[in-house]
């Protein structure tokens, strides 16, 4: 028989926070005094709506969805890739059939290129970046390089801040190709303005220096967020002009518009794998692959094989499931991993199919605000095939502005007060006699004394103001 470590009111709201050293942990406890007072008052016969009280979090944040600092809980989303590719062969190399197109996530390539030792200026860096693009696409007739947009008002702002929280950003404006590279490449990339500047510079550099034997397509990095350019008339860029914030969803659009026999998407993010699987029915290419890993440990995912391996009818619910169980913009639910929820999803996937479609009714509590964020993120993902997605204002979808009139979005965790206002102050007394006069605060308020009044704690005091029930 397994030991059941049941939670108590003493342990229910304990949250372990690891410091820089693993052996050092700070246990953060909720202030349980209010709850203790409420239960004591209820036991004394006072009118306490416990159902209403327990519908509040009794903490400053909903700890099942957020950390004590208000940040959304994170999980291991990469584990989902292992589940999807179980019993499916993932080779380290593939043969390209017919005409082939390579779609590249720019930030994955920027991370792989790093700061070249032999590059001193941004012009030299642009050459090295282009070399990396052409080497990666040496076997392909078309190469598409897609960039993220670093928007000030973004639901991904919290994730980006978390990734660069220990880095001090350094501003460097790329006015021309002769501008020297910064000393610290990571500090340079930590600033969104630098990323946008670099994306514009690389986009223009790739198109201007495109070899005649290749079709180079670039989107997302120009000053106009919708602009896309092609080095050849073989690809119509007007079909790729899209109002997308992330390169991840642009990859899907380009895969759908592309007519090559084989489409390979170069990306490392689990999100992209899920997007490709979910949108596969809209892709005309018979051979769609995702290339992940590093050059030394390359892995190709067969998107069609993964799609066919899913349980019948679950494809439309795959993206809502990913958002519901935690991604970059939604919470990982405490003690509920993606792996543990996958079996439930396979049996009950139809319950999630409508998320990301239509509208939701008004909601109030923490879970429903989480569902709103899930719905909004699913709307974004499900419209990856659209050039101009139609999205509601995130302010009403589980997000709020950090400051009035500001642009930064932060998750709205609760609409209810953590503790009911009516119960924030509970009358107790400190009487040393029998509580028979109006000097007793409880008696004066025409309330029974509770188990936390002094008259109840002290065995030498015989309280006459107790409930007989």
From TrEMBL:
What InterPro entries does its record include? Tesmin/TSO1-like_CXC
Q: SMART domains from the entry?
A: CXC
Q: What's this protein's name?
A: Uncharacterized protein
The source organism is Paramuricea clavata (Red gorgonian)
